[in-house]
Design a protein that fits this description.
Length: 485
Amino acid sequence: MNTILRRASAVAAAALLVVAGDPASAEAQPFDALSPQVQSFVDVSTPHVLIENALLIDGTGAPARAGMDVLVSEGRIAAVGPTGSIAPPAGIADDDLTRVDASGHTLIPGLVMLHEHMFYPSGQARYNTNEVSFPPLYLAGGVTTMRTGGSLDTYSDLSTKRLIEAGSVVGPHMDVTGPYLEGRGGFIRSFPELETPEEARAHVDFWADRGVTSFKAYNLITREVLGAAIEAAHARGIKVTGHLCSITYREAADLGIDNLEHGFFAATDWVADKGPDQCPRGAGDTYLELDLEGRAFLDVVDHLIENDVALTSTLNVVERQAEGRPLPPDGAAAAMLPELREGVMRRAAGRGTPRGTALIRRYMDMEKIFFDRGGMLVVGTDPTGAGDVVPGYANQRSVQLLIEMGLGVEQAVMVATLNGATYLERADEIGSVEVGKVADLVLMRGDLLSDAEALRAMTLVFKDGVGYSSPRLFEEGTTGWVGVR
């Protein structure tokens, strides 16, 4: 690792701080309470850390600042200031303070990603839960908080969350979404089939009682059933998102939905012959024909904004429909189960078409207009699709795609950090580098302002003030198992 850590020999015995229980908790665990597996990925374990001389992009959207120090104390950000201006905490011995030389590095908040999954496609509409490989991959890619954008194995997801919070498993904090809110005829056998408002309310209450903190509606649900689900979820203080088709974005906003997935490429608002509660074909053609300066599009955009509906960008999962797009990094390919890797990479290399190229650019333009008009844009990766979207690697790529969309670097970081935290109603604790907040931070080699490839060079990922080695998480935690466990 190129980041220089100046530590005394006693660091190995220092206490390691990590959040336990509720993700909003500020309670810490001693180092010896963590499993040996979690301990093995930690490079910075002292309770006090001074990160020196970084290029700081703080997540608020403010201009980046060069030559900045950040002091972490007891898992929280204690001070932020120009290099040399921050004194170590009074009475702290040198052995209890780690100094991180961040010269030539960029420091950003931990990523808050809102369309992640714990499952992965293994063929024939079968999706395996990857509770072993995915959590370390997410953390390696800078994700310190994530929401699962739909669950096929909710008991496993809830157990994984509990194990992470207990310090038994390495990974980000998790907001767990319950089983999908879907109607009859869903394409995955494990989808529920909710056909009445009573079934929807019972579904929401059952899973809320078991600890899920989000819900997601899917393609074939009806307005009546979705409305009942939203009402039941809101009564429990839980938000609802949707990957919709049978219901338009305007209709969903009127029902009170909180979030819509995949930018606008799941919207059916502009399909001329769409019937009520029917999922039409060919919606993609309407995007290419749509005048993005006309009222047909802008009225939907403004309606979402007026109703406080957030939009999740998930360009990763459709990127390789376009020509000339980069393949997944070598590490992402190596992480896949060998029996799946060849087919995934072959399909990824051959998917691009001129139409796909035009569609990707159109998706980006639509999301940028939503953002520019004041919409709450958040981001996620959706590691499903054709299998080429691998957690961690894809999270880094998602920020690059926001920059390609036309956002400034500081804006792209804000979308991937503070906006996600704001949506989860945790912006007072996470999402930006500000005094008093939890020390969730990502240090990467290079100048992110001038080179988006710096996102591929993460060195340390701080979660609750504990510095994990990104390269070691990528190299040792996951190789060859994505797709099966």
